[in-house]
Amino acid sequence: MPKDIPVSNGSFLLNFDSDYQIRDIYFPFIGQENHASGHPFRFGVWVDGHYSWMGPEWEKNIRYHNDSLVTNVFLRNASLGIELRCSDVVDIDINVYVKKIEVANLEDKPRQVRLFFSHDFNLYGNDIGGTAYFDPRSASIIHYKVHRYFLISCWAQHKWGMQHYTCGRKNSPTDLATAEEAETGELSGEPTAWGSPHSTVGIWLNLDAKGKEITYYWIAAGMNYDEVAKLNLEVHKKTPEELLNRSSKYWEAWVRKSLIDLNDLPESITDIFNRSLLVLRTQIDNTGAIIAATDSDIIRFGKDTYSYSWGRDGAFVAAALSKSGHYHICIKYFDYCARILSEEGYLFQHYNPDGSLASNWHSWLVDGKEVLPIQEDSTALTLWSLWIHYQGLRDIEFIRPLYETLIKKAADFLVSYRDTETLLPLPSYDLWEERYATHTYTAATVIAGLRAAANFARIFKDIELSENYDNVANEMTEAIKKYLYHDGLKRYARSGSRIEGGYKLDEVIDISLLSLTTMGVLSPKDERMKETAKAIKEKLWLKTPIEGCARYEGDVYQRSEDCPKDIPGNPWFISTLWLADYIIEKSENHEQLKEALPYIEWCGKNAFASGVLAEQVHPVNGSALCVSPLTWSHSAFVWTVLLYTEKRKKLNS
Q: Which of 326, 401, 425, 618 could anchor a disulfide with 623, C-beta 3.0 to 4.6 Å?
């Protein structure tokens, strides 16, 4: 179940699903240690002897407040005669998640409404060796294990702390006896449980006829008891309402810090633009790592996650944020890249948020021969992104230490890692992490990375080095034209496998071929490039009610059994936006430029109501597929909108 809304402060993140249940809890690193492991933290209501968990019985509208990372959730259960309006936030300064709930009694008689919150913590990502207990000192429920503590408390009708609670122990993953107790409207008050514990708390509210009441519920995250106890006292001192208000004001100021002219763009685009910036911030750890996605739903496939930092995804996110004026959030990311870069100057596939090497999906052996298990584009794109960052901030003091530790090391690797005969990059894994070959997209990113390194070398007066980087980029550009162009098909090939005298070319059409233009290698006016782009549009644009653009012909990743057999693959947000990028690059007047708008608007049409973008969507019904939010989707949206506004400004001048 893809996630609708994340709330985060860079150290503490919670994801909600489409039933408004907490599914993922990360602390103290975003994307590392999921303390919920995708298990639902259920939220339900009891009134007049009837009980209902959040689910199909509820009418739901799950959104954020405008220009904010505070949620704006409407819930209505007609059979219970109850409406709820909820706001959720993780405070910007302290690691406390706050939920505000306004309960409305729709009936013309006084009633007692009971709210229940069930917690299925898997601290450190597993359900072994934990403890849950009622803490009389703070009048709260605390879940803890080793150095992970979560304190749960509330305020209701002028009373602080939990009055109704129970703790239990699971005998199986779905054995949540405390949640079953809630369905009776009562909790037994069991004060402790250990091993594989869970807990449920209740808030009793007495409502007048047609009356309303406001209550607050919060979770504090820390490393020990004293820390969460102090955070709880801070909530008492500041009040939950003040935490909500200050966070809302901060995020509104944050998203509006850059004066980007979005005038004349449809509201559907401007709304997703601001939302994308905010969503990107939720997925960035305060120590620098940019996480691909924190959605645990992908664990069902392959027993792994997207909760890692890829050089590829991180570079695109940092480039988009820098281009939008949010430079400072990227500074720690590039420091992070310098820390994780290998001594040889390359990045492995992905890393954990704390900088340790993550699981590697690539083999060190291909056809029995030792290879580097890398995607070379990740290393190259890091340099490309850093140059975009520098162009905006012009902070030479920040760049100076990175020149030796990141820029030169990575660029020297790109220079050395190439075929001595063809001068193209040596084989590596492709951007989709599926094939090992020499890829046109990879070559394009290497050229862009070397151009960036040459620019930095000129700044530091390393003229000989800058000329070398530029010369290698020039040689590689000519090599692409010579070896990766398919004379028979009259277009570029997505990759080649080395044979004597050249390459056996892969004839499959791939959206990544547009990188030849978008990375600045070839002009969009180049006739070969025009034919390549034409073939991409003809072969990859879906002829279904949803439309959108696939990644490549024959893409089966996340394809459902009910999908039409004749489609190239599911439509991806980044593929659709890359088509728009190419149109923007080649446009020479306003009419041509406007041809890109439908591709950008497609993203808004297929976003969640919250503005969150998944990785891909179902080609017929438009439902979200794979993870959401995907940082790459949101960064691509921001990047495309900024390209559009820049080109419009240029055409106006």
A: 618
46 and 179 housed in the same domain:
yes
* Number of separate domains in the chain: 2
Handedness of CA 417, 412, 422, 514 (dihedral sign): positive
Q: What is the pLDDT of residue 418?
A: 97
Q: What is the mean pLDDT of residues 310-323?
A: 97
Q: What average pLDDT does this structure show over 602-607? A: 96
How many helical (H) and strand (E) elements, i.e. helices and strands, does the chain have? 17, 31
Residue 575 inside a domain? The answer is: yes
239 and 106 within one domain: yes
Closest CA to 86 of 71, 69, 65: 71
Query: Does the pLDDT value for residue 300 go beyond 90?
Result: no
Angle at 390 between CA 389 and CA 395, to 5 degrees: 125
pLDDT at 1: 53
Q: Does residue 108 sit in the same domain as residue 238?
A: yes
Beta bridge partners of 113: 47, 205
The two tokens of residue 26 are 């990360």
- For residue 531, give every residue at least 6 positions away whose Cβ sits within 8 Å of its Cβ, in sequence order, or none: 490, 491
- Taking CA atoms, 438 is separated from 90, 361, 419, 444, in Å, by 44, 18, 10, 11
Judge if 238 and 279 occupy the same domain: no
Q: What is the pLDDT of residue 229?
A: 98
- What angle separates helix 408-416 from helix 463-483, to the nearest 10 degrees? 40
Instruction: Please say whether the beta carbons of 293 and 629 come within 8 A.
Output: yes
Contact 541, 552 (CB under 8 A): no
Tell me how far CA of residue 319 lies from CA of 268, 312, 337, 633, in angstroms: 23, 11, 14, 13
Residue 257 pLDDT class (50, 70, 90 cuts): confident
Specify whether 228 is located in the same domain as 275: no
Closest CA to 596 of 652, 642, 628: 642
Phi-psi region of 394 (alpha: psi -120 to 50; beta: other; left: phi over 0): left
Q: How far apart are CA 517 and CA 480, in angstroms?
A: 13
Average pLDDT estimate for 48-61: 96
Residue 302 has pLDDT above 80, yes or no: no
pLDDT of residue 351: 97
> By the 8 A CB rule, do 140 and 161 touch?
yes
CATH of the domain at 121: 2.70.98.10
Whether the per-residue pLDDT at 244 is higher than 70: the answer is yes
Considering the chain, what percentage of its residues have pLDDT values greater than 70?
98
Dist. CA 306–CA 24, nearest whole Å: 13
Q: 172: how many CB neighbours lie within 10 A of its CB?
A: 7
- Give the structural domain span for 30: 3-254
Q: Residue 186 domain-assigned?
A: yes
Locate 392 and state its tokens: 């905006």
What is the pTM assigned to this prediction? 0.96
To the nearest whole number, what is the mean pLDDT of the chain? 95
Residue 500 resides in a domain: no
Binned at pLDDT 50, 70 and 90, residue 3 comes out as: low
Q: Are residues 112 and 18 in the same domain?
A: yes
- In sequence order, the 6+-apart residues with CB closer than 8 A to the CB of 318 are 290, 330, 333, 334, 385, 386, 388, 389
Q: How far is residue 331's CA from residue 344's CA, in Å, rounded to a whole number?
A: 23
pLDDT of residue 503 exceeding 60: yes
138 with 220, same domain? Answer: yes
